[in-house]
Design brief:
This protein is of the alpha/beta class. The chain has helices spanning 32-39, 57-66, 84-93, 104-110, 117-125, 152-162; strands spanning 2-9, 12-18, 24-29, 49-51, 102-103, 138-139.
């Protein structure tokens, strides 16, 4: 059974789904039902969830992030299904310094797959634990924002918050 926790971050409301071991299994911007419908599919299908309104380490991490500790979300334990390249990309994203986004090409290098830029960009797009796995920190070569599953306004808000 997952606990669904809503918290506010720059860019909007984040819904996080945490298992009994306090591991984050899915997270994204939007109300609980919308995020569940979008993320608890495929290998994550069948998860049952309940809304949770009490104190929780996810809330503590979100509060720390809002207060300027932009590594707080990166430190929360996460798990999501994916290939080894996806896993290495997601680990690499958690190493990117807040306020210093990297290009998809640089992210591919950090992930140990410098020739797999498109696959690394695809791993960002398939990330089910945003912003705890901070795919918003990956941008296009030349500084363009690229894409973001929750919209460029959310990506911009997160990047702006991490530079202050």
């Amino acid at each position: 059974m997952l606990r669904a926790i809503e918290e506010t971050l720059p860019g909007g409301t984040v819904t996080a789904f945490v298992d009994d071991d306090e591991v984050l299994r899915a997270a994204g911007f939007g109300p609980i039902g919308h995020v569940a419908e979008r993320l608890l599919t495929g290998p994550s299908a069948g998860w049952q969830w309940v809304e949770y309104a009490g104190a929780h380490p996810v809330r503590d991490a979100a509060a720390a992030y809002r207060d300027g500790d932009h590594r707080a979300l990166d430190r929360y334990p996460v798990s999501q299904p994916g290939t080894e390249l996806m896993q290495s990309t997601w680990r690499a994203l958690r190493q990117v310094t807040p306020g210093a986004p990297v290009s998809y090409a640089e992210l591919a290098r950090i992930a140990g797959a410098p020739r797999a830029v498109r696959a690394v960009a695809s791993a960002c797009a398939r990330n089910r634990i945003a912003p705890f796995v901070p795919c918003h920190r990956a941008i296009k070569t030349g500084g363009g924002l690229g894409g973001y599953a929750y919209g460029l306004a959310v990506k911009e808000a997160l990047l702006r918050a991490e530079t202050t």
